[in-house]
User: What shape does this take?
Amino acid sequence: MVAISRIQEVRSEVDRLPGAAQSAEDLMMHMAKLLNQKMLKYNWVGFYLLEENPGASPGVLVLGPFVGAMTPHTRIPLNQGICGAAASTGKTVVVDDVQSDARYLACSLETKSEIVVPVFVRGKVVGELDIDSHFQAAFGSEDRLLVEHCAQLLGQYLEKHDA
Ligand code: SME
Assistant: This one.
């Protein structure tokens, strides 16, 4: 129950961010910081933004604002990684044990579980929110709802302001 009230508290804090943000970049940075600081198992929190290549090749996910250690994966093709899976299917991916998922692209040796939630603008995937944890199975159903809510807030902001 403690965890759920913590999640509700963080959700109301997150709800205040879009109104105060100067730009989408600013909103992403504040959201990543808040989630990393308040949710103790969210050890790496970052955004990837979809860069669409006109022509034959599929798009690439480009690292945006993030909090945590630098990752070697700054550009992820849509057909690679858990990140690519979430963006190409438009569905949230939760992996309880990254070592047992063949799609996983390692970012840090400490990472044990991961959640990736697509961000939509007018029904199209434009990016995603990626969170890694040092704990196995860190993302339960309440976490999933919180992270999906964050991704939705960013999508709504982009729809209104940038895209
Ligand atoms: N683990 C991700 C790559 C990004 S890093 O976690 C920051 C993946 O498998 O797509």
